[in-house]
Structure formats: structure tokens, C-alpha cells
Design brief:
The chain is an all-beta fold and 96 residues long. The chain is 0% helix and 56% strand.
Length: 96
């Protein structure tokens, strides 16, 4: 897949832009950290994702969740915010 990746002096990925089919992804990461900000603009997903070094994540825009007991999946529209806990990625909060 075509893209541009920027590495720091240590060789760690810090920023990237990638074309994926008819969409694109832009990602930024701090030096030496696990968190990142990612912007997705894909045919079925328009989303901004924020993740921190502790494993928490927030998604603004289209996102999907899975109910653990039933396995049922739900899609949220671009008018939603979903926050995930670390580890098992359970939903902490979501907009109606």
C-alpha cells in the first residue's frame, strides 16, 4: 500500500500517511510512547481515534462494538463517541 512514514533518529515510527483502497489513514505518535492519534477516512469509516500509553482509547465517529456475551456487533454513526477501557476494550461510555 502506498504511503509515507516518518521515523525519528532512533528508528521509531512517529508519523504516517497511507492510502488504503479508496480511503486514507493519517497517524501521529509521541516519541517512546504507546499512545497515538489516528484519522481514518475510509469508504465505510470516518473516525478519529485517540489512544494513550495506559491502553485507554476514544473513538469519535464511526465505530463498532461487540457485546461479549452474545457476540452481537453494533455500528455507531459518525455522530457518536465511544470510550474503551484498557485490556479487554470494554465500552466505558458511549453517546446515544
Amino acid at each position: 500500500m502506498p504511503g509515507i512514514w516518518l521515523l525519528d533518529k532512533a528508528g521509531d515510527l512517529r508519523a504516517g500517511m497511507q492510502l488504503i483502497g479508496k480511503g486514507s489513514v493519517i497517524s501521529l505518535r509521541p516519541a517512546g510512547e504507546k499512545g497515538q492519534i489516528t484519522l481514518y477516512e475510509l469508504p465505510n469509516v470516518s473516525q478519529i481515534s485517540l489512544a494513550d500509553a495506559q491502553g485507554y482509547e476514544m473513538k469519535l465517529g464511526d465505530s463498532g462494538t461487540v457485546t461479549p456475551l452474545s457476540g452481537q456487533t453494533q455500528r455507531r454513526s459518525a455522530a457518536s463517541i465511544v470510550m474503551f477501557g484498557k485490556g479487554k476494550h470494554h465500552v466505558i461510555w458511549q453517546a446515544p
